[in-house]
Design brief:
The chain is mainly alpha-helical. Helix content is 51%, strand content 6%. The protein has a two-stranded antiparallel ribbon.
Length: 314
C-alpha cells in the first residue's frame, strides 16, 4: 500500500526532487560564466587582513558536480525516489530482505531441520548445535540475560536451579516461543497492608532465606504471611511453579535488601518475557531451548501450580 493518501503528494515530492536537481544544475551553469578577476574579493574580511577572494569554482570541480547530477537522475530512474515511482528495477527494502532471508533459509535451513528432528537432550549434547545455539542466544537473549546467561536485576539467571515457569525442555521451549508474563500484586494499596505491616512482612521474608531480620517484626510478619502471601507463595514460602517464586532459596530477582523487598511488597512487580516463536521459527526455538537447557540449570523442589507438569521453576 502506498504511503501517500492523495495523488497530490506524489506530484509534490516528484516536483521537489526534480526542481532541486535542476536548481543544482543552474547554479553550476552560473558558476561556469563567472570570470576570474585578479585581486577581487567578496568584501568579507577577518582579523583585519584575512580576505575572501571572489574566485569561481575550478572547472574540474564543477564537472564532478555535473557527474553527481547525472548519477542522481540515473539512480532515480532505476530505484524508488520519485514519489510512488518504483524504479525500473522495482526494488524495495522489504523485497531485498525477503530475498536474503530466502537465500539464508536455503543455505542454513537443512542444518536447522537436522537438529529440529532430534530430541532436545540430544541436541544439547551436540557440540555443533551448542555453538549454533550460543550464537542465537548472544544475538537474541544476551541483551537481557547477559552473555553468560546469568541474568541481572529483573532478568533471571538461566544457569542456576531456580525456575519460575519450569526448567524441563518443553517448559523452556514454551517460554521462548510464547513468552511469559509475571506479576506480583501491590500490597501497599488500601485496604491491604499499611507501612508497618509491609516492613514486618519484609523482615519475615528475609528470615525465610536465613537473612538478618528484626525478630519482633519477623514474628509479626509471619502472622501476616498466611493471609497475604501464602495463596501464591505457598504456606512455607517455597513458591509454586508458574505462579510465584521460592522465597526460601536465597535467589532474588530484584534483590534481597529490606528496602527492595519492602518496595516489592508495597508496589508490586511486573515483568515480561517476549515471545520469539513467530519471529525465529520452530527450528531456531528448538536450538535455543537445547542451549538454555544445556547451561546446567537443574530441577528444584518447589511445588507445582495446578496443571503444571514438573516441580521446576524459573
Amino acid at each position: 500500500m502506498s504511503d501517500f493518501v492523495s495523488g497530490f503528494w506524489n506530484y509534490y515530492v516528484v516536483s521537489i526532487v526534480l526542481v532541486s536537481i535542476l536548481g543544482c544544475g543552474v547554479l553550476l551553469w552560473m558558476q561556469s560564466s563567472a570570470k576570474h578577476v585578479e585581486g577581487e574579493t567578496t568584501g568579507h574580511v577577518w582579523d583585519g587582513d584575512l580576505q575572501e577572494y571572489s574566485n569561481p569554482l575550478p572547472s574540474w570541480w564543477r564537472w564532478l558536480f555535473y557527474l553527481t547530477i547525472v548519477f542522481s537522475l540515473f539512480y532515480l530512474a532505476m530505484y524508488p525516489g520519485l514519489g510512488t515511482f518504483k524504479g525500473v528495477f522495482n526494488w524495495t527494502s522489504a523485497g531485498q530482505y525477503d530475498g536474503e532471508m530466502q537465500k539464508a533459509e536455503e543455505q542454513y535451513g537443512p542444518i536447522f531441520m537436522k537438529f529440529q528432528s532430534q530430541d532436545i537432550m540430544a541436541v544439547a549434547a551436540d557440540s555443533e548445535a551448542r555453538e549454533m545455539g550460543q550464537r542465537l542466544f548472544l544475538t537474541y537473549c544476551a541483551q537481557c540475560h547477559g552473555s553468560d546467561a546469568r541474568g541481572a536485576r529483573g532478568f533471571p539467571n538461566l544457569a542456576d536451579k531456580d525456575w519460575l515457569f519450569g526448567g524441563a525442555p518443553e517448559q523452556i521451549k514454551e517460554s521462548i516461543a510464547s513468552g511469559r508474563d509475571a506479576m506480583m500484586p501491590a500490597k501497599g494499596v488500601k485496604p491491604d497492608l499499611n507501612g508497618d505491616e509491609i516492613k514486618d512482612l519484609a523482615n519475615y521474608v528475609r528470615s525465610l532465606s536465613g537473612l538478618t531480620a528484626d525478630s519482633i517484626r519477623s514474628q509479626r510478619g509471619k502472622e501476616l504471611f498466611a493471609p497475604a502471601c501464602s495463596a501464591c507463595h505457598g504456606p512455607d514460602g517455597a513458591g509454586v511453579v508458574g505462579l510465584a517464586p521460592n522465597l526460601t532459596d536465597k535467589i532474588w530477582l530484584y534483590g534481597s535488601s529490606e528496602d527492595i523487598i519492602t518496595e516489592t511488597i508495597a508496589k508490586g512487580r511486573s515483568n515480561r518475557m517476549p515471545a520469539f516463536g513467530e519471529f525465529l521459527g520452530d527450528a531456531k526455538v528448538h536450538l535455543l531451548t537445547a542451549y538454555v537447557y544445556g547451561l546446567g540449570g537443574g530441577v528444584n523442589e518447589a511445588p507445582a501450580a495446578p496443571g503444571a507438569t514438573t516441580a521446576e521453576k524459573k
